[in-house]
Amino acid sequence: MTISSHDFANSFVDGPAITQLSPPEDCGPVGSWAAITLNLTVTTNGTQFDRLGIFTFHNVEIWRTSTFEPTIGDGIVWTYIKDVTQYMPLFTESGEFLLELDNLIETGLDGIYSTTVAATYFESSAEYPPAEKADIIIPISTLSNTTADDASVPPAFSLNITVPNNTVAIYAEIFASGNGLEEDWFFNVPDEFFSNISPNITSPHDGFREVRLLIDGLVAGVAFPYITVFSGGFIPSFWRPIGSYGTAELPTYFVDVTPTLSIQIGILQVILDTSFEPTIGNMTVHSASNYADTSITGFVEDFGQFNATVTAMRNIHIEADILSGSGQLTHVIWTQDLQFLNIQTYRNNGLLATLKQTSTGNSSSTHNGVAVLSDVFSYPFSTNFDYLDETLTNWTSSIDHSYDRILLPNPLRIASTINNHQTTDGFFQLGSEKIGNFGNGTNNNTFSYSDVKGNTYTRSVNAINSNFNDTIAIPLDEIGGNLAH
Known about the structure:
- The chain is mainly beta.
- Helix content is 2%, strand content 51%.
- It contains 3 helices and 25 strands.
- The strands form 5 sheets. Strands 15, 16, 17, 18, 19, 20, 21, 22, 23, 24 and 25 form an 11-stranded antiparallel sheet that branches. A 4-stranded antiparallel sheet has the order 1-8-3-6, with no helix packed on it.
- This is Peptide-n4-(N-acetyl-beta-glucosaminyl) asparagine amidase a.
């Protein structure tokens, strides 16, 4: 069913597209579906920046995406299908469905993003049974009914939440992205080195970012975010026609907050006990510092010529005993072991920069020894960025980055493994309004997916963009796995 069709022009002022969405009446009993997907199709022509898009339903964010920058002439169109089955409790009731995609039309920017959003409900059967789902989903958001429900941090964002007294398990999902001045957060240099480089090249406050979830003042879990390079990042011709991994669906991060039931406690997926008697919780171990352990080292040779290294470590260990109203005792162990490294080197008055960053970690939760959440990840990212002269109007760059993740978000979903490796190389020249910009780029990708049910999918695809908008070749495109049909 079509949810909305909306043109985003001056939407910074005009606001989001808001639609009343109700469950279908001809797809079996409400809430018994095997799956739900959202289909986003966007088309545009002209010139426009990449723009952040946020979907919320019942004040719960369910999808964070970004647009692809258009091309002049034929324009562009893309379609993305997202599985939203995990949010099924939201779709069982009528509510406001909101897509915020802030855009601006002004001199030099005339691209209007025309969007169509549709939902597909898959009726369950003996072969495809109803999907497992949480009993309720609780938003951790601004609870706005007129805008997307995200908030900028810092400062800290807080909300008072009450959960049912017979709750026996809670799993949090965190949406996080760097936007605006934070879009290139990974390239920020430590404050003590910022006076040694032109502020036109980079920003201060170093390249380490940690998203913390606190409950009643105690750290419950954290995330070291993945670097998402939007379609205008580094060299725009890198990403035509293949975007950086995560652009259309930014990764999210998961925390088991069940141990905090003893102190009452993104979004929360809540599992209830069969009994209506209150749950009793006792947190027996809480080992989590307020902030990660960090260090900054480096050496300055001259202005615009230095190296800086930032490291960070985070260890969290929380245990609790949860006694349900029906008498079930559950011992919960939640741990996180995360590492971060960012090495930056600047030469030639800061015009030549190299960056090597990696975030790795292992988050794990067991309930009575059974794994209910597991997240093993590695996000290596390296790049060279070379301004060719002091005007900062032409440059070359290359990127080598990966997204490697073995993930079980919660016991209601299946464990999967995703490995994505992408390399790019290219040149870009800012031009006048009359001549326009010029650039080229290559983009090589390998992707693989597998899950515990035996599903597999692989794809290797390369693109060559030899004239920014006009000449694009795909010399390699190979698809495999049992999901490839």
